[in-house]
């Protein structure tokens, strides 16, 4: 029997108190909203006909998003900055439980968890999640990661029979390219129509960009989107990608070859595991593995991008609780603690310049915490998949050639 949860109003109040405590704490001060500033300047550049992808904004930051984002960011030029900051923060704090609520509607949880219980659980999870480093960084930078996460998980929580399934992911890709891995997940988990809808929405966004800002679209799709050097220092501890970890480990930024080889292998393995889970109706595992894979193989995965891993952490805890697995629950708690104590910032960040290229062994563990956790999670999923296949094979014995289809059906169940 499921443990009773507090009433909906009490869950909302707990989340509100947690937000108030965060804002009143030392973590609630000094929010520079640097990325929100870049968004606003990007929108202004479009309105004034400037060459968007040639500009450098405060902190020598470049605009790295697709043209559709720049078009949408023109709306951010309307409110004064003093009003825009609390508006975006408020929207993000509303989107956090919404994103987690969508995650709780993924298969097979949707069959055993009522919508009302999912909302209550999402609010309670958000009360903790708002303190996690990826969420905190998203809020203080004024990032749009929670918008992206909500779009992706809303889409994936919809029934496969929905005609417009895939549109949310397509829009997310149009805003920020990295969610494209979820389009591959749809395709590989045999949701071809949804993958096609996703591709259609994305291509429509590209066409819209060329129609409205042809020069900027030509610059972006002509090569700017491939230039990861425009995004920032790859060795930065905030870059929790495989490439960033390799740079810090090798004490050099010249890791392109080894990173590409490792990223290809990891992408194939991670997507295979995710698709396998998705095909057997387990989007809880499939979406989680897909998110971790995408974050690892991306050239740059800033810590705020890891907001996409927060639903995976919540789902891991829920699954551990339901299966009464103290080991898995302890693992989820340990991961939460790593994010709660902001471990990746326990190293000198560009003090002195490029200091992350000179870390000792313990500092490397701190600086690569998210990467190491994700690799362990993927490895554990791989071992579990192999064990499950071997146990089923031993239980059945060799299947006759004429019954290959039935054997495959059993494996997928």
How does this structure look, described?
The two termini are 24 Å apart. This protein has helices at 8-24, 34-47, 67-73, 81-103, 115-129, 133-141, 145-157, 167-175, 180-188, 192-212, 214-221, 242-250, 256-279, 283-297, 310-322, 326-340, 361-367, 369-396, 404-412. The relative contact order is 0.10. It is an all-alpha fold and 413 residues long. Residues 399-413 have low confidence and may be disordered. Helices cover 64% and strands 0% of the residues. It has one domain (8-390). It has 19 helices and no strands. The radius of gyration is 22 Å and the shape is globular.
Largest sheet properties: none
Q: Structural class per helix/strand content?
A: mainly alpha
Along the chain, the helix and strand elements come as: HHHHHHHHHHHHHHHHHHH
Number of strands: 0
- CA radius of gyration: 22 Å
The percentage helix is 55-70%
Strand content: under 5%
Sum up the overall morphology in one term.
globular
Distance between the termini: 24 Å
What is the typical, i.e. mean, pLDDT? Answer: 93
The number of helical runs is 19
- Uncertain runs: 399-413
Number of domains: 1
């Amino acid at each position: 029997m499921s443990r009773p949860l507090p009433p909906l109003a009490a869950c909302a109040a707990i989340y509100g108190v947690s937000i108030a405590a965060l804002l009143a704490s030392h973590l609630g001060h000094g929010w520079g909203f640097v990325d929100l500033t870049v968004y606003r300047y990007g929108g202004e550049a479009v309105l004034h006909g400037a060459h968007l992808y040639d500009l450098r904004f405060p902190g020598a930051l470049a605009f790295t998003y697709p043209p559709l984002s720049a078009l949408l960011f023109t709306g951010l030029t309307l409110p004064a900055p003093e009003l825009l900051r609390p508006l975006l923060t408020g929207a993000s704090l509303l989107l956090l439980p919404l994103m987690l609520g969508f995650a709780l509607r993924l298969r097979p949880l949707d069959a055993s968890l009522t919508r009302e219980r999912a909302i209550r659980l999402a609010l309670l999870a958000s009360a903790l999640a708002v303190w996690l480093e990826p969420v905190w960084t998203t809020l203080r930078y004024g990032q749009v990661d929670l918008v992206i996460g909500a779009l992706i998980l809303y889409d994936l929580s919809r029934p496969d029979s929905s005609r417009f399934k895939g549109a949310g992911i397509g829009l997310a890709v149009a805003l920020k390219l990295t969610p494209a891995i979820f389009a591959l997940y749809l395709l590989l988990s045999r949701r071809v129509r949804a993958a096609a809808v996703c591709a259609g929405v994305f291509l429509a966004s590209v066409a819209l960009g060329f129609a409205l800002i042809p020069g900027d679209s030509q610059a972006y799709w002509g090569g700017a989107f491939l230039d990861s050097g425009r995004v920032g220092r790859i060795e930065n501890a905030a870059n929790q990608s495989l490439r960033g970890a390799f740079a810090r480990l090798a004490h050099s930024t010249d890791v392109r070859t080894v990173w590409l080889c490792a990223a290809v292998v990891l992408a194939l393995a991670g997507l295979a595991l995710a698709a396998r889970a998705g095909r057997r109706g387990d989007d809880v595992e499939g979406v989680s593995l897909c998110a971790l894979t995408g974050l690892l193989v991306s050239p740059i995965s800033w810590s705020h991008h890891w907001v996409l891993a927060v639903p995976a952490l919540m789902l891991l805890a829920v699954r551990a609780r339901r299966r009464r697995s103290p080991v898995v629950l302890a693992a989820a708690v340990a991961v939460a603690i790593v994010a709660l104590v902001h471990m990746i910032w326990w190293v000198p960040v560009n003090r002195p310049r490029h200091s992350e290229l000179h870390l000792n062994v313990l500092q490397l563990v701190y600086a690569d915490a998210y990467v190491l956790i994700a690799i362990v999670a993927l490895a554990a999923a791989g071992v579990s998949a192999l064990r499950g296949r071997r146990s089923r094979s031993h239980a059945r014995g060799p299947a006759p050639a004429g019954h290959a289809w039935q054997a495959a059906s059993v494996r997928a169940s």
